Request: fold
Amino acid sequence: MNEVTQSSSNVYEVFALRYATHDTRRSGENYLGDDPHDDIAMPLDFYVWVIRGNGRIVLVDTGFDATTAVRRGRRYLHSPIALLGELGIAASEVDTVVISHMHYDHAGNLSEFPNATLRVQEAEMTYCTGRCMCHEAVRRPFEARDVCAAIERLHSGFVVFTNGNEPIASGIDVHLIGGHTAGLQAVRVRTARGNIVLASDAAHYWDHVRTGRLFPIVHHVPAMLDGHRTLMDLADGPDHVIPGHDPLVRTRFSHWNGHPDIVMLHEKPVEHTGIDRDKGGPETKEAR
Ligand SMILES: [Zn+2]
Ligand SMILES: [Zn+2]
Reply:
């Protein structure tokens, strides 16, 4: 683990902003091929993440809006734009929007960020505009209007495609993971406590990484399992991998100004994840 103390000039603050939630059950809804007897409540939280420092404001994912929340039966807590406002960040100040993948809960609200350049994997744009979308089951987590908004941004000259692993800024880089969608990317950020990795849907819950299990929306099973390992390799420790939908994010880290839904990921956790990398990575004995 690299718990280096770095100068404030080359590190970032990173906040997880919880904007919505959904009451899900562990069995079937959150684990691929799970035992139906293992059916307990396991809520799914929805986050966007903002990276601030070195004159940059980078938003990782843009969430969905209230209309989409009603249509899809999600409980909307705040608009992501309002949460940014509580941190003193105007949407117009966001210079870069990194879209982890184009699912509805990650790629809405694009028009709210008029000055931002969009960074999305070319493979993801190909995926969400191509033949895979002929299948209703595959396109269900996408909103056509979000895809259209991204295409409009492209034709306005405000999209820069990423291909594989690339720097976004000094101390911020993206990594193509795939697995969940064809072009899902995770984001690694340098903070005062070391490099953290915003996994987005490369790991919905820490428990997926710990046990080598999968969320049921899968494009490619081996790529998703390889992705868990990649996340661990990129991060400076298990506590540095931040899952995309886990309610435990709000109990394992401190909150900004006591706000219930603004979490400081650049601060050391108050509770550890319980993942032991030394036992051979994500696939623990328990999973085998
Ligand atoms: Zn997703
Ligand atoms: Zn998601």
